[in-house]
Design brief:
The chain is α/β, with parallel strands linked by helices and 227 residues long. 10% of the residues lie in helices and 23% in strands. The protein has an eleven-stranded mixed sheet, covered by helices on one side.
């Protein structure tokens, strides 16, 4: 285990050490201590390493992640795992706005609640939230899966494309072009796999599925008021 202390090592040097790891590195276990809410911790990683952040982080933690597993033992500020490509990011606490925004791949697990715009413009990422999510989540989400064990706020899935949304609790309101859809066997299988990978104690049969009604793909005068 290699320990990096932000109290004594500048954040730029901490990130440089992590970013310099190659796919064949022998130093696979890293620990970051005294994060004290610093922004952009463990960003731009591209190696199969495991990084544990002992505490809470500020903006954009684990952004642009590839291959790495980043585990935050506290909460995370806005933009955690933004533009994530692969790997796994785990937040033990809560996540602020636009968690997992524009994520292309990988798995983001939030064991607390997520704020507004969770999964905005998702492009293939899988997000599992153990608690609740805020308003406008999955806005313009294109592909991937958003799983919510708690409740969802206003305008879920507004202007949704082909991402799949699974919510166990209540949904305050659905956004434009987002509708409840049938939960078929293939969706139960996808959801079971995601719950297992996230370590979530829930049954797929407890969830409802939401997706795009596909009415806003092309402009139609009858739907002009929804644009």
């Amino acid at each position: 285990m290699q320990t990096l202390d932000i109290a004594t090592t500048p954040l730029r040097e901490v990130n440089a050490a992590l970013q310099s790891q190659a796919a064949q590195t022998n130093q696979t276990q890293w620990e970051i201590v005294n994060p004290k809410g610093a922004h952009a911790i463990a960003v731009g990683l591209d190696a199969p390493i495991e990084v544990t952040v002992k505490g809470s982080t500020g903006y954009y933690c684990a952004g642009m992640n590839k291959q790495a597993t980043v585990h935050v033992t506290g909460s995370a500020g806005p933009g955690v795992a933004e533009n994530m490509m692969s790997g796994t990011v785990i937040i033990d606490g809560d996540a602020s706005q636009y968690a997992g925004a524009t994520g292309n791949g990988g798995l983001l697990v939030i064991k607390g609640n997520a704020s507004s715009r969770c999964g905005i413009s998702m492009k293939g990422i899988d997000i599992v939230v153990f608690g609740n999510i805020g308003h406008m989540s999955a806005f313009m989400a294109q592909s991937g899966n958003l799983v919510v064990l708690g409740d969802a706020g206003d305008a879920l899935g507004d202007s949704l494309y082909e991402a799949r949304l699974f919510v166990r609790g209540s949904v305050k309101s659905l956004g434009a072009d987002c509708i409840e859809k049938e939960m078929r066997p293939e969706h139960l299988a996808i959801l079971k796999d995601l719950l297992d990978r996230a370590g979530a104690d829930a049954k797929p049969e407890e969830f409802k599925r939401y997706g795009s009604a596909r009415k806003l793909y092309n402009f139609h005068v009858d739907h002009a008021g929804e644009y």
